[in-house]
Amino acid sequence: MDRPGLERRFFWIFVLMILGTAMSSRLAAQATDPSGLISIRLEQLKDDVTRTVPQNTVFHSGDVLRFRLSSHLAGYLYVVDKGTTGGIATLFPASGAGEGSNRIEPNESYLVPANGDGWFSVGGPSGFDVLYFLVSDRPINLPQAAAPSSHPESKEAPPPGMLPRCDDQIFKARGDCLDDSAGVAPLAPGAPVPRELIPLARTASRDIILTDDGGGTTVQPAAAAKLPLIYTFRLAHRD
Fold it and tell me: How many domains does the chain have?
């Protein structure tokens, strides 16, 4: 082959390599994005003013809060709360809501609980409410047993190790009490879930990546994770 022909051949090979690299990068980005991202913010209503608060804040009985979720994926969201009394309540979708009411879409914002403006008052014995977030790419029949009356309430105080405490190293100047064990967290392998969620959680991935997005937390499935996905939010409060 003459030299000009050889140079043209190497030129086109080089062009194809560049295009292949660009396409691979695009496909890789799409591979991590389709399972999507969900951003969680915790808001507090105080003196008629709504503000985003640190997720590891230790709240007090009577504090008024809500969760604001921003979705970057299409799917279905289920949120179940296990309170410090042991009671179970479904926060999303709203009780009695119709089919598809828990559908989430990209670039949309959602309030949890899914009742009206979403506000709820903190209550119950001191401890951690554990909210279970389940994201699926298809509808799931959430058992009807997931209701506030599904567990008998316990009046016993939790063990000392289960009580929120202020972490002196992250104590804020304005006097906020913060506990670094509160907030969004992966559900550890083998960790128990409320019995209503056992059939759903059995096949759900627990492998997530958490990113601080400035006032909130972004949840993303790890590279090998697939929907459905389950994770928790520990809400700390004291009397």
Answer: 2
Long-range contacts made by residues 43-52, C-beta under 8 angstroms, separation at least 24? Answer: 43/67, 43/68, 45/119, 52/215, 52/216
- Kindly state whether residues 26 and 78 are assigned to the same domain: no
* Mean pLDDT lowest among 20-34, 110-124, 220-234: 20-34
Q: Give the mean pLDDT of 79-93.
A: 91
| Tokens standing for residue 54 | 């640190």
Query: What is the longest distance spanned by two Cα atoms in the chain?
Result: 90
Q: Which domain holds residue 127?
A: 35-238
One domain, residues 194 and 167: yes
Structure tokens at 98: 């119709």
Residues 105, 121, single domain; the answer is yes
At 68, is the pLDDT very low, low, confident or very high (cuts 50, 70, 90)? very high
Together in a domain, 95 and 179: yes
Do 168 and 227 belong together in one domain? Answer: yes
- Whose CA is closest to 205, among 233, 227, 234? 227
Residue 197 burial (CB < 10 Å; 0-12/13-18/19+)? buried
Strands 229-238 and 58-60: parallel
Mean predicted confidence (pLDDT) in 136-160: 55
Q: Are 238 and 62 in contact (CB under 8 A)?
A: no
Task: Give the model confidence (pLDDT) of 153-209 as tens digits.
Answer: 444 444 445 789 887 665 555 568 999 999 999 998 888 888 878 877 888 999 999
| Residue 142: C-alpha distances to residues 151, 174, 194, 198, 201 (Å) | 16, 42, 12, 11, 11
Q: What angle do CA 163, 164, 169 make, to 5 degrees?
A: 140
